[in-house]
Structures are given as C-alpha cells and as structure tokens.
Amino acid sequence: MARASQPTLTPPISNPFSTRFVQPGELPWLAPTPAATLSGLRRRFEETLNRRGAIVGAHGTGKTTLMLHLLRLLEAPQGYLQLRRGEQPLLTVLLKIARTPVGELVAVDGMEQLGPVGQWWVRVGTKARRQSLLVTSHRPCGIACLYATGVDDRLVERVIEACVQRAGLDLDPIRRLQLINAARRALGRNGGNVRETLMDLYDWFEETDHGEVGEVVEAPE
C-alpha cells in the first residue's frame, strides 16, 4: 500500500530585525560618506589622537557598533566595558582601569553616564597607567573627538539592506518599497534613533508578514 505523501512545509521567514541580526557588533558599520573608513579612523586614533579618542553622537546613531568594529581592528576587545543604567558606573570603570594591564586599551561605552567628575577620574586614571582610551558619549567629554555619528534616510536604507541580506531574504520590489517607507516613518517617530527604528521594524515585519501591509508610496528618485 502506497504511503500518503506528506505536505510540504514552507520554512518560516526570518525576521531581518531580530536581535541576532541587529545587535551592536553584528551589523557592519556603514559610514555616511566614502571618505570615512574604519582603517582611516584607526589611523586617526593611533597617529593623530595618540590613542585617546571619543565617538560622539545621539542615542542610537551607531556609536557602539563603530566602537566594536574599531576594537576588532585594534585587537583589543578585552578592554571593552559597556555602562548600564542602574549600575555604579564610576566604580565599575575604575575597577576596569585597575584590572587592565598598564599600557593597554580601555574602552568605555557610555561615558556620559559618569558626569564631569567621573569623566575626569577616567582621563586621569588611564593616563597614570599609560593606557589608551576609547569612549562613546552623547556629548563632548574632555577627550578629542575621533568621530561624530549621524543618521539620514539613505544611511538607514543601507542598514536595512544589510539586515535583509544577513537574514538571507530576497524581497520583491513592492515589499522592499513598503519596508523603506515604514523605516522612514519609524525614523521620524524616533527622532533619528536607529536602534528604536529597528525595533519598530521588527514589529512591522511581524505584522505585515501575516498580510497586514500598508499603503505603498513611491520612493523619491
């Protein structure tokens, strides 16, 4: 007796904005202009700024992503420290400085959380131990600016394309245009915060993947 054929199951579509695709360090760093390159920033950090620099920009504009890619180039991932709300940030950083070997690199992600006095202690402490220092901050923090991050629609479109490629998706032109329009709306709602925009796009993709698509608007030339 012939066995009944089994139905073919279509594998679920990966959401390109899942955490595994968009968390800092997973996405490539995309410069707004060809003049800005990781290798160029590395040279500026090492040669011009004497290995002490800050990546400055608003929340969610790619500071952490840039820092993590630079640390890989500098071969110093062990020096990385991300400050989180609710911690004792100054104590955490001072312990990191003390535990990092003399002459090595200390990288502080979220320097603005320390305040002026805490930032002073970090600058002085790393200099006393002859350590290099790379930080991210929402505003100037007494360390020469290595790079100022910024966001526009075109850059966000490139980030989205990178997410789609990493997820292995091949979107048709209409679906791609819907996604771009959704991203522009989300970027406006979130005041230029790319991180929040990607979180919104995760929800949008989940909803529209089940047939709830929005209006299609022609993209400008």
Please identify, by name, the CATH architecture of the largest domain.
Answer: 3-Layer(aba) Sandwich
> If strands are numbered along the chain, what order do they take across the biggest sheet?
2-3-4-1-5
Structural class: alpha/beta
Count of individual beta strands: 5
Describe the fold and architecture:
- The chain has 221 residues and is an alpha/beta fold.
- The chain folds into two domains: 41-148, 3-Layer(aba) Sandwich (Rossmann fold), CATH 3.40.50; 151-208, no CATH class.
- The chain is 44% helix and 10% strand.
- The chain contains eight helices and five strands; from the N terminus they run H-H-E-H-E-H-E-H-E-E-H-H-H.
- The protein has helices spanning 19-22, 38-48, 63-74, 89-99, 115-128, 153-166, 173-189, 194-208, and strands at 52-56, 80-82, 105-109, 132-137, 145-148.
- Strands 2-3-4-1-5 form a five-stranded parallel β-sheet, sandwiched between helices.
- Helix 4 links the parallel strand 2 (80-82) and strand 3 (105-109).
- Helix 2 (38-48) crosses helix 3, helix 4 runs parallel beside helix 5 and helix 6 (153-166) packs across helix 7.
- It is elongated and about 60 Å long.
- It starts with 18 loop residues before the first helix and ends in a 13-residue tail after the last helix.
